[in-house]
Amino acid sequence: TKRIDPIPVAMYGGRQAVSMLPGGGIGPELMSYVRDVFKYAGAPVDFETVDIDPNSESNDDLDYAITSIKRNGVAIKGNIETKSKSAETLSRNVAIRNELDLYVNVLHCKSYPGLPARQKNIDLMIIRQNTEGEYAMLEHECIDGVIESMKVVTASNSERVARFAFEFAKRNGRKKITTIHKANIMKLSDGLFLETSKRIAKEYPEIEHNEMIIDNCCMQLVSNPHQFDVMLMTNLYGSIVSNVCCGLIGGAGLLSGRNYGDHYAIFEPATRNTGKAIAGKNVANPIAMLNAGIDMLHHLGHVQHADLITKAMVKTICEDKIHTPDLGGTAKSTDVIQNIIDYILTVDVRPW
Ligand code: ADP
Ligand code: MG
């Protein structure tokens, strides 16, 4: 079976270099918090910061970012803005995922006990195709006033994302996978995605498999989300459903998302927001980006550092209840981070 197999990367003095793409809006401030927390937790990671000019029409910055990630194997990323409205200037975010062939996005949507939320005790996974579908970016005006936009679904990408989902479920003790689709209307494209997942499901008889139409899925998520375990879907449905799930457990400021291919991985906040309106005000919730950092530490095998930061973070938001305004609190972003660092300093009994 296939596994995520990072290409061996250079490590200097046992420290791992990772690419850091702050992006726009609140990205840079959130990255500075990740750096601070990593420093106090003693995480053996060095950041190579890569900025991409949102006003640029050229792809030089983008090419440099991709080279950096290929060199380091791993990146932490904010949302990059693309100012140009021209169809020729591709979204940098999409271009990076495509170029590195990060064909799957994984979101673990798990409630934090004691946080204000629409729904409690949620623990579900979203496995999303991350490089094609409605994000093919093949749009054109065929005649005046008529736009065509292509949705591309391939057998090979449908198969590898389905296989990833079942393998993931098996290894993580998950019991059920639900394929989310609209194959009743998009019979060929979503039909292929659905049929492929059904075929792969036969290889995993120990995991229950069912299907649900995307519109019903949205209703079910809001009214009865506990029926879901692992959800498998195409790119655009994944984007929307991810945001619904984040909303259910407390908003855009909490959860992280992981982008994987066979060779590279990128970690980022789950809802991929720029957060422009709240940038520079010291009010953005730093937890989503910190969770991306924790995911990255797990990926690099630095489990003890990841656990130390997780403990400090959970203590800060669930017990001490230091909450930014998105969670109904009055704390500043820096109050949350200071509390996390203070806890790391008091409990730090690192044997390593
Ligand atoms: P987009 O980048 O898609 O335009 P926005 O930046 O408008 O999305 O973000 C959507 C909403 O989520 C906004 O209300 C924004 O303030 C909020 N948001 C996003 N990230 C955070 C965060 N880290 N902390 C608090 N609120 C956030
Ligand atoms: Mg916006």
UniProtKB/TrEMBL annotation:
<dbReference type="GO" id="GO:0006102">
    <property type="term" value="P:isocitrate metabolic process"/>
</dbReference>
<keyword id="KW-0809">Transit peptide</keyword>
<keyword id="KW-0816">Tricarboxylic acid cycle</keyword>
<protein>
    <recommendedName>
        <fullName>Isopropylmalate dehydrogenase-like domain-containing protein</fullName>
    </recommendedName>
</protein>
<dbReference type="GO" id="GO:0005739">
    <property type="term" value="C:mitochondrion"/>
</dbReference>
<dbReference type="GO" id="GO:0006099">
    <property type="term" value="P:tricarboxylic acid cycle"/>
</dbReference>
<feature type="domain" description="Isopropylmalate dehydrogenase-like">
    <location>
        <begin position="17"/>
        <end position="340"/>
    </location>
</feature>
<dbReference type="InterPro" id="IPR024084">
    <property type="entry name" value="IsoPropMal-DH-like_dom"/>
</dbReference>
<dbReference type="InterPro" id="IPR004434">
    <property type="entry name" value="Isocitrate_DH_NAD"/>
</dbReference>
<comment type="similarity">
    <text>Belongs to the isocitrate and isopropylmalate dehydrogenases family.</text>
</comment>
<dbReference type="Pfam" id="PF00180">
    <property type="entry name" value="Iso_dh"/>
</dbReference>
<keyword id="KW-0496">Mitochondrion</keyword>
